[in-house]
């Protein structure tokens, strides 16, 4: 079974990457990494970057990069994908260099979300200096917990969930089911929360959604101090950025957070105090209440 360690990075396509440079530094408090290829790179810890924003003709999340332990695990992952009949593309040396990794492959899940599996992620140990004075983000030892989590749309929820659990080796954390219509025949929408081999409660969630043009429901960043959540909320409101969800605390991962709009059209959860789990003997849960308090959602008009 594959040993995926963390959500290492995301690649976001943007019609105007400079919007992300402004948003990433002035709102999120991430550190801009100078580049000469026209892309925007945002750093939050010992890794060279966690967000890569590339120029494109549309705004969307393009890739989630999932970290494997080592080269042996990378080779094993390719063998398991081949045995399962799942197609993948070997990343070029130039692509690996740009991702700051030693090797990667690209593939799609059954709902069409694109992902990269990689090994040998670099540590540049460049000092993280937040332009907003944030002392740090919760990413583990040398970033081994990844930058946070991603919630992706899944038009084929059951098949996509099975892909991540049965093929990629993710573990189940929690399940929720939502009904937004009073129609008793409305099947509702499922939401699977999954973890990889680190203590973060979930690094991935799949939301049953057949129509999502930006390829993402939300991404999450976790700071280490609660006041930083409030400071960020103040920056968001001062900048006139839509607050997609008010401040609240989630049930399943205990995260104290709020959600805001991003330049790409999906949401960004900004939080603190998320649970760190011991997965030995863990029994996956089914949760009927998303939040203990708060988190009143108000999706901005498209």
From TrEMBL:
Keyword DNA repair found: no
Enzyme Commission no: 1.13.11.25
UniProt keyword terms in alphabetical order: Aromatic hydrocarbons catabolism, Dioxygenase, Iron, Metal-binding, Oxidoreductase
VOC domain: residues covered: 6-120, 146-273
CDD domains: BphC1-RGP6_C_like (cd07237), BphC1-RGP6_N_like (cd07252)
GO molecular function terms noted in the UniProt entry: 3,4-dihydroxy-9,10-secoandrosta-1,3,5(10)-triene-9,17-dione 4,5-dioxygenase activity; ferrous iron binding
Cofactor annotation: Fe(2+)
Cited Pfam families: BphC_D1 (PF22632), Glyoxalase (PF00903)
Protein family per UniProt: Belongs to the extradiol ring-cleavage dioxygenase family.
Protein name (record): 3,4-dihydroxy-9,10-secoandrosta-1,3, 5(10)-triene-9,17-dione 4,5-dioxygenase
